User: What shape does this take?
Amino acid sequence: MAQRVLACTGCHGPQGRAASDGYYPRIAGKPAGYLYNQLRNFRLGQRHYGLMTQLLAPLSDGYLDEIAHHFASLEIAYPAPQPATASPAELRRGEALVRDGDPTRQIPACASCHGARLMGVLPAVPAVIGLPRDYLNAQLGAWRTGNRQAQAPDCMAEIAKRLATTDVFAVSQWLAAQPVPQPARPDPSLPAAPPLRCGSMPAKSGPAAPGQ
Amino acid sequence: MSLAMAFPTTRGLRQALISLIVLALGLGSGVWWLNVRDDGVATDTAATPSSNPSTLAQRGAYLARAGNCEGCHTAPGGVAYAGGRGVPTPFGTVYASNLTPDAVHGLGGWSAEQFWRALHNGRSRDGRLLYPAFPYPNFTRITRADSDALFAYLGSLPAIAQANRAHELRFPFNLQVTLALWRALYFRPAQTPHDATRSEQWNRGAYLVEALGHCNACHASRNALGASASTLDLAGGLIPVQNWYAPSLTSLDEAGVSDADSAIRLLRDGVCADAAVSGPMSEVVAGSTQYLLPDDLQSMAVYLQTLAVGSPKRAQPAREAASTLAGSKLYEDHCAGCHGIDGEGVRGVYPPLAGSRTVTLQTPANLVHVVHEGGFPPVTAGNPRPFGMPPFATVLNDDDVAQVLTWIRQNWGNRASAVTALDVRRYAGKR
Assistant: This one.
């Protein structure tokens, strides 16, 4: 399978890769349901990146599911966290939003869906630790402008719109500076129901991937 | 020269004007006649039926696969056959219509006769002329019986109330009169004649390739007005806007069929021992030819084989020594891992580059696309878990791509022209 998906690792690299036109995020160890949703979204044009859409166009849902499961199963070390460049006050604000949210603006804590360890939750919620802050800023920004769309109801779009720009910066600064906890795997489930209805959760996964 | 000098008398002027009006009327009626003749006349020669399912709609479902109707008439991520996909042309974008039986937006209010007229004469139900981005210059050859089967199949689909999107065409291409002139010059309703000197299999192949398959819509070059020399022309052409080259099916130096088995495998599985489909052809295999009956694929191969001829040996371009070292290093670093240090590839997985007809095509357009965008062959029953090629657009710059392609095109006995950085920029898509 690894040989078959050289088309993917060429850009995404083992730990993600920065290139001239943006950042290709890490895909190793992400929940299979999340990866499958992203692959489908790129193929359908809900996420916009020409190279991805073209690559995935001739593939079936079943094969996308197999590809997703393959990358989900990889265990590759994470790079060291990025040192924060924000002020201590901003970082405290970022941490507060991540752990507690802001009830006055109906912003739920990131941890309430992404897991207490922020390493994601099976089957389809990704980790938010272990990503560069530029990438976090770009994705939250894309949800605000509608450039990135998840399956309806799009909970991340809702949340991103409720966040102020300064909130986004604070959150991404704090998250990118956190070390990746061990084991670096998503939690098997959430302790309580998620605060928002979310079309991507649980994932509408395709047929079960064949053992590989 | 003033008007007064050209026509010294008012009588002369009046005569000239009258001649001009008569001429305009004559031309106008000629254009009108050329557009309305054969309208709705179901002069139908019996097409040779293949071993198809019994009911009309079931047969129509199969024919829709052969014609790949769903491919154009479905928006990306949209409901099948509800329309909305844009076909890019040099004149603007033409949007495919809703073919579901919705009474307002689709074919719900149409009759089989009107549907036949759309296929055969490129005319909508209200008499409006259709744009040949809908390849009715090829579909005109579809028989009335097959048209009825297609109509029955479309009528059996769930009705989707999706409005048709207006075309985005530049002036004057958005005018019906321009279209009428184009049709007068380039379109004739036709039937595929039955050739009694050839086998039934050959005739079936001719019908599939010329009519339903509309292979000519891509595999022929088009003039500035977007017309091909003939709807039987399969001598290859650059697909406008997308800049992929659909190779000649009549030349053995390009994609002419010498080995029917390989051709069948390629159409059915998307890969054969020495080649794989890519770009727009990937879509054709994925959506259409992988579903064709073995008999039909055989017929198409038999027909195409009779068209394929060798061409006079092209002048061998000189090998450019200067680029050899750089190109060779790039190949070793980025390509040899899959395509082999001797360009031998891996049978059925990584196409060989040595002796490859794709590599030595005169235009390097497809090579530029493949190196930039990478790609997977389509998922088919015969190739359910394809091996993919990574995109190199973010790894290699234009000069690198030019050098490695030049090296590939001139090594291992390949003799094709060099590729320049300008070529790469010209053929690469939006980046």
